[in-house]
Design a protein that fits this description.
single chain; alpha/beta; Rossmann fold; 14 strands; elongated
Length: about 400
């Protein structure tokens, strides 16, 4: 990327965890000046996971907090709130992901921020929105995977519901929040002024399952757990091959089915009425599996992938993270970016390739309160005022 497109945009990042920090980082990737407001206890994400979080934080924190600066502020003190008032008055965007009512208790709800900075773009990422019986409940990706219905469709048909093994809903909400903020920034160009945006995790989750919700609303049928099979297609899903490995296959059209049969050396199935159409194959999936599963187990993944790809059948190996990074062709697709830190040296950045390149790292994830003095100076505080704020505990640095 030749130039940071959002270089003139100032963002106040009042977030912790995953969804909010990820949203603010994506704006930072695009060039925005992002200032993270951190309490003395710190963003809980710094110390989650395995191992010693060290001075800055764990790998997840480093991955989703690049391209921002951090100021330590005690918002329970009047002087701390005064600092934030000054920062908001100079900002274009405020992003928070506290539960409903917290920003108001701190004195920085939308109305207050709009008064401080007319035309402010105010974005909250919440569990259940800003109103309703659940609005004040704490929320997280895991809890929302359960409550939104996501876990109900993950797992084997006869097994227990399962959690997706990464913060799917948090990152979806982050991307949707950024879409809303970019829409509001664009709206300013045509005189629409500011905006009050809220993205709830439950709505973000439901948007991922729009097909399942539509099915239920239309027919009353609850989407079942599908396991490794695609309920709409057959054969489609994960299949074991030789040496205990797995590949995935998806036969989309009846023309592909005929090619699939030839690739597997099962041409006799082409004329079998039980499998002549996708609807028939879905209906007779168990009978079909009894035929093709032993055949697939007789060959290695390399053998079957070569034959299936030659027949133009959708297929691929089921990879681990290590497998992905070890595959040069896949690795070339990834936005691996330098963290400017010893460990990890690289993280996955935004997947947007802009003018031929991915967004890079202008600054690594900050230590807690690393930029307090710098940000206070930019906000117009003189050195004696800064020392008074630090001495009174209204602000703090990484050393204090």
């Amino acid at each position: 990327m030749s130039a940071p497109i959002l270089a003139s945009v100032r963002v106040i990042d009042m977030t912790e965890g995953v969804a909010g920090p990820c949203a603010a980082t994506l704006l930072g990737d695009m060039g925005a000046d992002v200032v993270k407001i951190e309490r003395r206890e710190g963003d809980w994400q710094r110390s989650s996971g395995r191992g010693d979080p060290g001075r800055i934080g764990n790998a997840q924190f480093l991955a989703i907090n690049r391209n921002k600066r951090c100021i330590g502020v005690d918002l329970d003190r009047a002087g701390g709130r005064g600092i934030l008032e000054r920062l908001v008055a100079r900002a274009d965007v405020v992003v928070s992901n506290y539960r409903a009512g917290v920003m108001a208790r701190l004195g920085f709800d939308h109305a207050r921020c709009e008064a401080l900075r007319p035309g402010i773009i105010y974005c909250t990422i919440s569990g259940f929105g800003q109103a309703g019986d659940y609005a004040h409940l704490p929320a997280s990706d895991t809890i929302l995977q359960a409550m939104s219905g996501v876990m109900s469709v993950v797992g084997e048909p006869q097994g227990p519901p399962l959690r997706v093994g990464f913060p799917l809903i948090d990152t979806t909400a982050a991307n949707q929040a950024v879409q809303g903020i970019l829409l509001a920034l664009y709206g300013r160009l045509s005189g629409h002024g500011g905006a009050n945006i809220d993205v709830s995790l439950v709505a973000a989750a439901a948007s991922l399952m729009s097909g399942g919700f539509a099915e239920y609303l239309a027919s009353g049928r609850v989407p079942p757990r599908q396991g490794n099979q695609n309920a709409l297609l057959a054969p489609a899903g994960a299949f074991e091959v030789a040496q205990g490995r797995f590949i995935t296959i998806a036969v989309l059209r009846d023309a592909h089915w005929r090619k699939f049969c030839t690739a597997l050396g099962l041409d006799t199935l082409i004329a079998d009425d039980r499998f002549a159409t996708n609807a028939a194959r879905v209906r007779n999936r168990d009978e079909l599996d009894r035929i093709i599963v032993p055949q697939l187990r007789s060959g290695t993944s390399e053998y079957w992938l070569a034959r299936l790809r030659a027949a133009d059948i959708l297929c691929g190996p089921i990879n681990s993270v290590a497998d992905v990074l070890a595959d040069p062709a896949l690795r070339a697709c990834l936005p691996l970016i330098d963290t400017q830190l010893p460990q990890p040296t690289q993280v996955i950045g935004s997947p947007i390739r802009y003018d031929g390149g991915f967004f890079g790292v202008r600054s690594p994830a900050p230590a807690k309160a690393q930029h307090t003095r710098e940000v206070l100076r930019e906000a117009g505080y003189g050195e004696p005022e800064i020392e008074q704020l630090l001495a009174a505990g209204c602000a703090f640095t990484e050393q204090s």
